[in-house]
Design goal:
With 354 residues, the chain is α/β, with parallel strands linked by helices. The chain is built from 11 helices and 16 strands.
């Protein structure tokens, strides 16, 4: 960011102060602030007299160390902890209170907010999982323990786009400002669909990383109707896309003779997207992830009752083995696998369609 992120100006104060003020107005009983880089600078500029401050000297080793320090500093009498990110200033007080109330009512091990089907933050964690969090190392967060608690995760729908919005770049900061005035954004944007109907094959790309954007380009050249599922993108931001859907609900996808799905959300909502794509009976479902993450998702979906036959249809890692490394090369390997699958299906049906 070129500056101390927590101190970036937002809403008349700083990112961190916005987050703290939202928590102070909520039902949260006590606040622990974990500081690492620029700790002294932050303490000088942000009022922290009413919170407990913990300094993570090992912050260079990754977010797991900060989470571990914070959990270790929690009041021993607390039943649970809400893990809040310092760069999410738009999370509403009502959302925080909703997560707490749902926890009190249902007593799950983990509570996760869901905006239009997309998983967000903050995450509420029951004390029973604290020992696992204290063992975290490296640059990993709460998601690392989700797989072993899949049967006891409560997903709570919230009408708060703030649970998805954090700040990693200056463009993200601009997006935050836009989101304050755009909470009622349309669920679907469409363009360039003249002459297309459900006889065209459809590629659905979940996410917007560089591989996803390269996939859109290849699919457009190969005459697929391209739909992107992402909560924040606008249609003009991805050349070649025909639709943007801002809700993770595959029942909203337009009809197509065949639907091919690639999940490239970098872990943000990959499990939910894979689950919906497999249940929807897509002709092809692929996940852009390493073998470990793919195994975690398969195990989690199995615990939640998905049949092994459906799980076996998931392609992960995605793409043909062509030694791909760059985003464009990876996208090419995935698109080649999709074309091969489409030709296999067409040959098996005894004739060509589409």
């Amino acid at each position: 960011m070129g500056a101390t992120k927590q101190l970036l100006p937002f809403g008349g104060t700083t990112l961190l102060e916005n987050v703290l003020n939202n928590l102070r107005r909520s039902q949260v009983r006590g606040i622990v602030v974990v500081l690492g880089s620029s700790a002294e600078e932050i303490r000088k500029q942000v009022p922290l007299d009413d919170v407990r401050v913990v300094i993570n000297e090992a912050y260079r080793e990754g977010m797991g160390t900060s989470l571990r320090q914070g959990i270790s500093a929690i009041d021993p009498e607390s039943d649970a902890a809400l893990v809040v990110l310092a760069d999410q200033p738009l999370v509403q007080q009502g959302t925080i209170d909703c997560l707490i109330e749902q926890y009190r009512q249902h007593k799950p091990e983990i509570v996760i907010p869901m905006y239009r089907g997309f998983r967000g933050n903050p995450v509420l964690l029951d004390r029973s999982v604290f020992p696992e969090l204290r063992s975290l190392t490296g640059d990993i967060g709460c998601r690392a323990i989700f797989g072993t608690h899949a049967a006891n995760i409560l997903r709570v729908p919230v009408d708060d786009i703030g649970v998805l919005l954090d700040v990693d770049t200056k463009a993200d900061l601009e997006r935050l400002a836009q989101a304050q005035n755009d909470r009622g954004a349309a669920l679907l944007e469409a363009a360039d669909l003249e002459g297309r109907d459900d006889s065209w094959p459809q590629l659905v790309v979940v996410g917007s990383d560089p591989v996803a954007k390269a996939l859109v380009q290849f699919a457009s050249l190969l005459h697929f109707t391209v739909t992107i599922v992402d909560p924040l993108l606008r249609l003009g931001e991805v050349p070649g896309a025909h639709r943007i859907v801002h809700v993770l609900e595959f029942s909203r996808l337009p009809a197509a003779i065949e639907t091919y799905v690639v999940v490239a959300s970098r872990g943000r909502f990959d499990e939910e997207a894979v689950e919906q794509a497999l249940h929807a009976g897509a002709a092809y479902v692929a996940l852009m992830a390493n073998k470990r993450r793919a195994r975690e998702i398969r195990d989690s979906l199995q615990v939640r009752g998905m049949a092994e036959k459906k799980l076996a249809r998931l392609r992960a890692p995605a793409g043909l083995d062509i030694g791909a490394e760059r985003p464009e090369e990876i996208a090419l390997s995935v698109m080649a696998e999709i074309v091969a699958e489409r030709e296999r299906r067409r040959s098996g049906s005894g004739g060509k369609t589409g």
